[in-house]
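Help: why these numbers?

___
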Amino acid sequence: MRKVVALLAVVVTSSAYGGVVTFSPAEVTIDLPVLTTGALDVGVHQGALGPIQTVDLYIGSSSVNLTGFTFDPAFVSATAFRSGPLLDTLQPIYSQSLYIGGFLNAPVASFDPIGRMTIDAAGLPVGDYVLGVNSVTDQQRSAFGMPDGETIDNSLIGSAIVHVVPEPATLSLLGLGLLGFLRRRFAA
């Protein structure tokens, strides 16, 4: 058995402009193989930008399966049109990229949350995996649209780290096995 732990790691741009995508709660634990999925809430903060009209997010991962997304009721009530969740197979940066977005009923000065994303880490070996939004690496697809219909701000960034670690019972068994091996070796 192993555990998957997703820890929050928000990266803030050095510019005063743009936005930050947040993933929360700060920690999600999945006991593998009994449980294989977990969930992270996704939100956006637009920093020093003026009012925005649209939000486009491409959340990418090189290994963790992004299996679903449910829009937050506040985002649903604030949007005239929502798109996604769509698995973007054309995104060359990540093996899997989940697109979510919406056109707001009226320009807003800030917005959070967007919704809840489901992740699946079944079958992953022990290690660290990144869920990320970075407008630089996703060819500026993650962006805010401004009310004039022409201005786009592409400075969206944020990430979460998924840690896959052995479950404590597994570590205990490994420790006992090692002790037995050492005892036998030194007894001989």
